[in-house]
Amino acid sequence: MNNKKILVTGGCGFIGTNFIRLLMKERDYHVTNLDALTYAGNLENLADLEKNPRYRFVKGRIEDEGLVESLMKEAEAVVNFAAESHVDRSIKSARPFITTNVMGTQVLLDCFRKAGCHGPFVHVSTDEVYGSLQKEDPPFRENNHLRPNSPYSASKASSDLLCRAAWKTFQVPVIITRCSNNYGPYQFPEKLIPLMIINCLQGRKLPVYGDGLNIRDWIFVKDHCKGVLCALEKGRPGAIYNLGGNCELTNLQVVETILRLLGKPKDLIEFVNDRPGHDRRYAMDIRLAQRELDWNPETDFETGMEKTVKWYMDNQSWWENILSGQYRSYYKDHYGRDL
Ligand code: NAD
Ligand code: DAU
User: Fold this and answer.
1) Catalytic site residue from 128, 217, 248, 279
2) With pLDDT > 90 as the criterion, what percentage of the chain qualifies?
3) Ligand 1 atom with the shortest distance to the CA of 188
4) Catalytic annotation present for 282
5) Band of residue 5 on the pLDDT scale cut at 50, 70, 90
6) CA torsion sign, 231 to 235 to 241 to 247?
7) Spatial contact of 55 and 31, defined as CB atoms under 8 Å apart
8) pTM
9) Which fold has domain 5-335?
């Protein structure tokens, strides 16, 4: 697989950035990063790779058939991270989620097939497609019914089904990964952990939805990226692999960890209105990935959170540029074109 040509979509987002960094460090692959630079895409994340001959950035949308067709002709394998990813935004407006997550995935699948790519086509999905668990339920298995509850998770479930159809009908060698909640460097500050760290650093209140007892399974982003790489290199076409951190915590436990690491008082916590349709609990059964991909999450929550808090403290200008909107001018400054 040396020098393999990989098309990565959504590489300027949180997980895509960490994945491309992992690829460039640990493999000889040639990477094309197709990213639309929506509000969640930050070109500066990969600025140090710009002159690397194994890396190329292309600004564009995954639903742009002409562009995707031309990029597929040069690609051997695909890893699709591109998505609208934030549940609260999907509640305010579902349409961009349908455009990117559903239509965009179908365009990628069609162009992959037409170009005769060898593959695989790794589709990065989420535990949220399974819906919500009650306290006593066993963790999600890959063959559970899909019961998505938000427009975001419904759009991701739709894209998973389109991937399944492409495999069954056309033998497109699709591999789906479904991962739990990620945290770590480069996460956009609308998500729980970076939002809370930054609010703490700024002495602001920490808005916890509802009673704060919703449970998520947390995984350090680098462990997720290693799982996606294992799926790319060792995955079985047509397979679905659950990935997770084996680390179920309530939101309050997460927020209290941040307060402790930053030495801040608990009275910064402010309970606010709950998210409509808020899933109560996610948990993942990851035994298939452990067995077939020889993959395991390696970072315990305490270590991962220490690294994450330190990263946000050391990279204040990264998140200040996002809060001020300054990060949006990086593309124009470097490519001379408007976003
Ligand atoms: P993110 O929102 O940080 O990044 C998404 C990236 O996709 C951005 O760079 C954005 O510019 C790009 N993008 C959006 N629409 C596009 C389009 N139409 N064409 C091309 N690029 C486009 O997301 P993330 O948290 O890095 O998540 C990446 C993927 O992993 C998503 O598919 C998400 O569903 C999945 N996932 C995320 C998590 C998590 O905890 N964050 C967990 C499991 C799965
Ligand atoms: O489970 C995987 C999913 O994790 C991914 O597919 C999504 O792309 C990703 O955004 C994430 O979804 P969540 O909705 O779980 O993540 P979020 O960080 O938005 O919220 C985590 C929990 O924290 C959730 O129970 C809602 C709660 N929350 C969130 C925010 C932003 C709060 O209590 N207060 C907040 O301000």
Assistant:
1) 128
2) 97
3) 3
4) no
5) very high
6) negative
7) yes
8) 0.98
9) Rossmann fold (3.40.50)
* Rounded Cα–Cα distance for residues 170 and 303 (Å): 44
Asked whether the beta carbons of 46 and 23 are under 8 A apart, the reply is no
What are the boundaries of each domain within the chain? Answer: 5-335
Per-residue pLDDT reduced to its tens digit, 229-247 = 999 999 999 999 999 999 9
Report DSSP state, residue 237: T
CB 34 within 8 A of CB 5: no
Distance of CA 102 to the CA centre of its chain: 16
The C-alpha atoms of residue 39 and residue 76 are separated, in whole angstroms, by 29
Using the atom order of ligand 2, give the atom closest to the CA of residue 208. 33
pLDDT of the residue at 277 = 98
pLDDT in tens, 132-141: 999 999 999 9
CA 251 to ligand 2: nearest atom: 23
Q: What spacing in Å lies between the alpha carbon of 59 and ligand 2's midpoint?
A: 27
Provide mean pLDDT across the span 62-77.
Answer: 98
Which ligand gives the minimal distance to the CA of 183?
1
pLDDT of residue 3: 83
**Cα-to-centroid distance, 281 and ligand 2 (Å):** 11
- Is the pLDDT at 1 greater than 70? The verdict is no
Name the residue of 44, 67, 85 whose CB sits within 8 Å of the most ligand 1 atoms, as the mutation to test its pocket: 85
- Asked if 211 is an active-site residue, the reply is no
The residue annotated as part of the active site, out of 152, 312, 327, 330, is: 152
| E strand or H helix at 182 | strand 181-183
d(CA 113, CA 16): 23
202 pLDDT exceeds 80?
yes
Residue 86 CA, closest ligand 2 atom number: 10
User: Which DSSP string do the residues of 296-308 spell out, in sequence order?
Assistant: -----HHHHHHHH
- The answer to whether 195 touches 261, Cβ cutoff 8 Å, is no
Q: Whose CA is nearest to atom 29 of ligand 1?
A: 81
- Catalytic residue at 128? yes
Sequential DSSP letters for 70-110: HHHHH-SEEEE--S---HHHHHH--HHHIIIIIIIHHHHHH
